[in-house]
Amino acid sequence: MKATAATDERASLSRRQVLTGLLMASAAVLAAARKPNIRLDYLGSHKLEDVVPKRIGRWQFVTSSGLVIPPEDQLQLALYSQLLTRVYSDGTNSIQLLIAYSANETGFLQVHRPEFCYTAAGYRLSDFARHTVPLNGSGAITANSLTATRDGSVEKLVYWTRIGDRIPLSWAEQKLTFAEDNLRRLIPDAALIRVSTIGLEDAHALPIIDEFVSNMIGSVAPPLRRVFLA
Question: Edge-to-edge, what's the strand order for the sheet holding 55-56?
């Protein structure tokens, strides 16, 4: 009787083990089937240095230095990605341009968001708002605007991120967009575009930034404009 009970117990354990193994195998197969494998890479083999011209409308490139960027240890996240920093001038006002690009959004853009790198550089941020940038013949971009202040210097910024085919307006939306794309089996590329000017009131700064952005998008070859636009 005891032997029969032991045999039945072993058989029951064996069936449970088989069932558990089948469930684990099924889960592994399902996970593999749902693993993101459709890669979006709108920049491809192109270099931002070549894609963005050194003359944009009435502005001419003058230097690549002087912009606020993340701390050096955080820039290690930029491996295998591209970062373009430029200062343009029309002889009266200067425009600072930063473009961070990653073929696989893995937190690379977080360190380039003004909320992170300007705060790390000792700036006080204020005047957070949504801002619509009109584009010549191409609709408009809804972006973020803010003011960064430090030691009497006032910088007006407009920036947006593009992940895949969408432009999320916050860090939370950015993470949600990435997660939703993964559920669609997409591996999205991502770009952060930041444009700013120093020492001007909003009434003058924002129109100048709008003009520069519109001219910049218009100066990029049409097939590559989706690097910047959703």
Answer: 55-56, 59-63, 82-89, 94-102, 190-198, 153-163, 140-150, 124-134
The pTM (predicted TM-score) of the whole model is: 0.79
- State the SS3 of 91-159: CCCEEEEEEEEECCCCCCCHHHCHHHHHHHCCCEEEEEEEEEEECCCCCEEEEEEEEEEECCEEEEEEE
Q: How far is CA 57 from CA 7, 20, 98, 212, in A?
A: 85, 65, 17, 7
pLDDT at 40: 72
pLDDT in tens, 75-102: 555 555 788 999 999 999 999 999 999 8
